[in-house]
Amino acid sequence: MADIQSGGFVYRSGHDSDDRHFAFDARRIERARAVASNRRTRLVTLRKFRSKGSGVRLDSFLADLCGDLSRTRIKRLIVDGEVTVDGSSSNAGYRLKTEQEVEIRVPDPIPSHMLPQDIPIDVVYEDDHIMVVDKPAGLPVHPGPGHPDTTLVNGLLGMRPNVGGVGGVMRPGLVHRLDMDTSGLMVVAKTDAAHSTLSAALKNRKFDKRYTALVAGILTPKEALIDAPIGRDPTNRKRMALDDNGRASQTAYSAVTIYANKTLADVKPVTGRTHQIRVHFASIGHPVIGDETYGRADPNLGRHFLHAHRLGFQHPVTLEDVEFRSDLPVELQAYLDELE
């Protein structure tokens, strides 16, 4: 249940929207009906504030006072008519005047309608705000084309139903992702406040994420930063590729062990693009072992050799610096043992 900051809980009964006011735009009709429906069934928190100065944007004003809400969610609430200034709806860019009354109605998160499933999940750490899990290879993080269920999200909803709706209904609780065949550590938010704080930290590159990768060939130099922008592959939408017009992407690596024709490396992604580590190593001629998308499959492995072994961040509530570690999965360790 959401905290009451000002005002109180309000259970609102809805009313039919007057479609005549929105006849010029079918999308607005649909949105108005959706908002009205939500008002009939959802518990909301009413918060009231009064501006002390002038010239501040409405969305910035609320972002400063509602630390548990992301700026994106605040803007959505404004668009949905859940924010009023002196009793009237406004827009995100409106600049407040002194002593104006601002009200914001915050509905509880919409519960996820994804199927809760009994999927074994290795929980490394858990408290009231976050959960750190060790994802196995082969388990998709969330539903998508080709795997509508049996994902980490389905398992989380089976274990902790209250995670549903946190951070969005499509990917409840998720702060970041791992590729399906990448194993290792992930943090999951159990509250909207934790999700907002962790997402901001991730965006500002405050996470310390480390991976163990086994790549083809001998890495030269032994330590380097791969700095190359990444975008969608124009010939295959399921792949990513180097793209001069893509998003800036940096991956740092350090060789740990050199084998006859392979290198075990500790990898730190500075940015977090889709398939970033795999694309970057393939681009320098050292694809991740077993990566059939950017290199070639290895019949002795059955997955690619990439494991998120370390995860560090500031706890969203206690503000303590926390760090978690994960050993190599049995199949990866066994593969290394055969190389020695």
Name of the top-level CATH class of the largest domain: Alpha Beta
Largest sheet geometry: 9 strands, mixed
Give the overall average pLDDT: 85
How many strand elements? 16
Give the SSE string. Answer: EHEHHEEEEEHEHEEEEEEHEEH
Strand content: 25-35%
CATH topology of the largest domain: Pseudouridine synthase
Please identify the structural class as seen in this structure.
Answer: alpha+beta
Overall CATH architecture of the largest domain: 2-Layer Sandwich
Oligomer: single chain
Residue windows where pLDDT falls under 50 for at least 5 positions: 1-40
Classify the helix fraction into a percent range: 10-25%
Q: Give the terminus-to-terminus CA distance.
A: 55 Å
Counted up, domains total 3
List keywords for this structure.
Pseudouridine synthase, nine-stranded mixed β-sheet, alpha+beta, 7 helices, 340 residues, Structural Genomics Hypothetical 15.5 Kd Protein In mrcA-pckA Intergenic Region, Chain A, disordered N terminus
Please characterize this protein's 3D structure.
With 340 residues, this protein is α+β, with helices and mostly antiparallel strands. The protein folds into 3 domains: 9-107, Roll (Structural Genomics Hypothetical 15.5 Kd Protein In mrcA-pckA Intergenic Region, Chain A); 109-192, Pseudouridine synthase (2-Layer Sandwich); 205-340, Pseudouridine synthase. Helices cover 21% and strands 27% of the residues. The chain has 7 helices and 16 strands. The chain has helices spanning 26-41, 58-65, 71-79, 152-159, 192-203, 276-283, 330-339, and strands spanning 9-11, 43-50, 83-85, 88-89, 101-107, 122-126, 130-135, 183-189, 208-216, 223-227, 230-232, 240-242, 250-258, 262-269, 306-314, 321-325. The strands form 3 sheets. Strands 6, 7, 8, 9, 10, 13, 14, 15 and 16 form a 9-stranded mixed β-sheet that branches. Residues 1-40 have low confidence and may be disordered.
